[in-house]
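FIELD: query
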Amino acid sequence: MGDTVQMSFTETRAVPEASTAAVAVDLVTDGAVASDVADGTTDAAGAAAACCAPAAREAIGADEAERLARLLKAVADPARLRLVSLVAAHDDMEACVCDLTEPLGLSQPTVSHHLKVLVDAGILTRDKRGTWAYYRLVPGALGTLADRVLGL
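FIELD: result
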């Protein structure tokens, strides 16, 4: 019952480039599989690696992905996107909350909530002057988003 039985076979299949590749596979009854591909690689993973380009740069890590997800969530709402656009359209990329409520057609508390989300995400800053709050676009907050996601 502890004997190992080894079987071999060769299969030839057409591939999209109209060429053929022969693969010999040794099957072992204990579940181990070894293969030799005709082009000289020793296993299927080696064959795949030979045809695929290696990564040109490092992908973002888990912490960076979490941070970027929060940023993307903040701008994923149409009202918040409009708020960013409205603030950016003002001189010095700064606007009073009093100038942001009417264009959106939303109540002041709802606009304030959206502005808080944008401030918490690091897209806008808030400066209280008397009874009014002024919001300013953080320089480069959105400009580097693609750079961080795509690594450009």
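FIELD: remark
Residues 18-39 have pLDDT under 50 and may be disordered.
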